[in-house]
Amino acid sequence: MLAMNLVKKEPAQESYVADKLDERILRELSRNARDSFREIARRLKVSTSTVVQRVKRLESEGIINGYSPLLNHARLGYEFTGLIEVTIRKGALLEVQRQISNLPGVVAVYDVTGLSDSMVLVRARNRGEFSKIVKQILSLDQVERSNTHVILNVIKEEYRQLL
What we know:
Strand content: 15-25%
Low-confidence stretches: 1-9
Shape: elongated
CATH architecture of the domain at 80-150: 2-Layer Sandwich
Strand order of the largest sheet: 2-3-1-4
Structural class: alpha+beta
Number of helices: 5
Mean pLDDT: 89
Oligomer: single chain
Distance between the termini: 17 Å
Order of helices and strands: HHHEHEEHE
CATH class of the domain at 80-150: Alpha Beta
Helix content: 25-40%
Radius of gyration: 19 Å
CATH superfamily of the domain at 80-150: Lrp/AsnC effector binding domain/regulation of amino acid metabolism (RAM) domain
Number of strands: 4
CATH topology of the domain at 80-150: Alpha-Beta Plaits
Largest sheet: 4 strands, antiparallel
């Protein structure tokens, strides 16, 4: 999974319009970012320098933010995955979201609409570790309440681009 700072608010930017070749390059990199530019160019039937230039532009435009392995968390011992809905007192939203995002085991913090203010994705090695994270979130001063969901089975989890 790619590491991201999900709480940071960035100024609105104009959307980048990827052409078909950009999309094909992104698809290839998403399949295996360890493939050489030469190999990607061969599969796409373009020159290696074209792929290099396009990738550099996609990186400088902030489309590609880094490269990371896709990990099998269960094989690494992270048996518990949960989604925690968090309700936060008015005026403290961003500060509490930042505090939550710094807790060990917190994978993502989403600012959402609906009955809750945030959704927090957590991975833990066991039930005790998971319980500790939930209690740490609940102990934050401005957290009013939470509703915890334990993920029983993962049907689909895709972190690669969707082009």
